[in-house]
From TrEMBL:
One of its GO terms (biological process) is methylation. It comes from the Bacteria. PANTHER family: O-METHYLTRANSFERASE CICE, PUTATIVE (AFU_ORTHOLOGUE AFUA_4G14580)-RELATED. This is Methyltransferase domain-containing protein. GO terms for molecular function: methyltransferase activity. Keywords: Methyltransferase, S-adenosyl-L-methionine, Transferase. It holds the Pfam family Methyltransf_2. PROSITE patterns: SAM_OMT_II (PS51683).
Length: 370
């Protein structure tokens, strides 16, 4: 007996007009003959093939990164044989990988048989946080190896163990783990801080508390832009142990867990940068209530993280971040409207939703305590 659930029978009349056309093989044959429609059909076909083949593209990138191909090319053009020696990949399969890298515009080949780093490959090596992000994708890739089991909740995900701090105080017991994860976060924080500070005005605030602020990378950037602002950082003790010595005079440190400890009072702005999406709704509700209690009247809450597109699902956040946070088993990628709704329900007013120009880096919601 077939254990798979059966789909209901197709009823084209229940579908939208364009979807109905796309279900018709006759329409596909017609579209291939009419110039305007042919162009549209080809573009749609290419987009569909991107979706189908995306995982192979990502794995080719992982091989180029872990084989150090892009790094070696950063020192100058090389032949396939040179690269084979440097990267310990036999020439024939390396040639396939290099051609894939060229198709992805990470590198390019010339007529003399040499390979060059392309601007996109150079940007990959330069933008902070991208390389560590790609290097830790093995974990998510394994979690998704049986995607249907994953979405049915039958997979014990490795990512749920990769971020064990979410479940309690494990990070406090494992300093190595805390250091590894803090490094990943701090490296990618540079872009998040830049975009957040473009979207939010902190110039009228006197004291900012960053809750779940890791090793202080966001506050370091805030301090550079607003030298007069008093800065405080609240995070788990094992994480705060990694705050660089150079920041310790500038920032006051408050070790604790927002699950079990109250937040320090005195700040007129509190930021939650890439914190809410790690947690389930109950934890988020309790945390927002603690932020509300710690702020004075007129105090501002600032939430910054990649957000779902809500009514218009976003190709970056509703695929990558939503599935990533689902794999964590405790997290959820929320839309700006949902976060604003939660802030309103906690008692905040003056809600502002500020979509980022790079939604895969961050978007912002702010509100005030009345
Ligand atoms: C995804 S990281 C973001 C770090 C930093 N804000 C950034 O954007 O780079 C989430 C942070 O929340 C902290 N965190 C998680 N649970 C916490 C808790 N119960 N109390 C305090 N901090 C917590 C983690 O230690 C971590 O630094």
């Amino acid at each position: 007996m077939n254990a798979e659930p059966r789909p209901p029978p197709a009823r084209p009349e229940a579908l939208g007009f364009l979807t109905r056309l796309a279900l018709s093989p006759r329409f596909h044959r017609l579209a291939a003959r009419i110039p305007g429609l042919r162009w549209k059909a080809r573009a749609e076909g290419a987009a569909l093939f991107q979706v189908i083949s995306g995982f192979v593209q990502s794995q080719a990138l992982v091989a180029l990164v872990e084989g150090r191909v892009l790094h070696v090319l950063a020192s100058g053009a090389k032949t396939t044989e040179d690269l084979s020696r440097h990267c310990a990949i036999p020439p024939a399969p390396l040639e396939v990988l290099l051609r894939a890298g060229a198709a992805l515009r990470l590198l390019s080949g010339d007529r003399r048989g040499r390979w060059h780093l392309a601007p996109r490959g150079a940007a990959f090596l330069t933008v902070p946080g991208l390389e560590p992000m790609v290097r830790h994708h093995h974990v998510l890739y394994r979690d998704l190896s049986d995607p249907l089991a994953f979405f049915r909740g039958q997979t014990e995900t490795e990512l749920a163990g990769f971020w064990p701090y979410v479940f309690g105080a494990l990070a406090q017991e494992d300093a190595g783990l805390a250091a590894r994860y803090s490094r990943l976060m701090a490296e990618s924080q540079v872009l998040v801080a830049e975009d957040t500070l473009r979207l939010v005005d902190l110039s009228k605030r006197s004291h900012l508390l960053d809750v779940g602020g890791g090793t202080g990378a966001f506050l370091a950037e805030v301090g550079r832009v607003h030298p007069g602002l008093k800065l405080s950082l609240f995070d788990m003790p094992a994480v705060l142990a990694g705050v660089p010595a150079a920041l310790r005079d500038r920032i006051s440190l408050h070790p604790g867990s927002f699950r079990s400890d109250p937040l320090p009072v005195g700040a007129d702005a509190i930021s939650l940068i890439r914190v809410l999406y790690d947690h389930d709704d109950a934890t988020v509700a309790a945390l927002l209530a603690k932020v509300h209690a710690a702020l004075p009247p007129g105090g501002m809450i600032l939430v910054s993280e990649p957000m779902s597109g809500g009514d218009r699902p976003d190709p970056a956040t509703d695929v990558y971040f939503a599935i990533y946070t689902l794999a964590m088993r405790t997290g959820r990628t929320r839309s700006a409207a949902e976060i604003a709704g939660r802030l309103r329900a906690t008692g905040f007013t003056d809600l502002r939703q500020c979509p980022g120009d790079r939604p895969y880096v961050t978007s912002v919601v702010t509100a005030n305590r009345p």
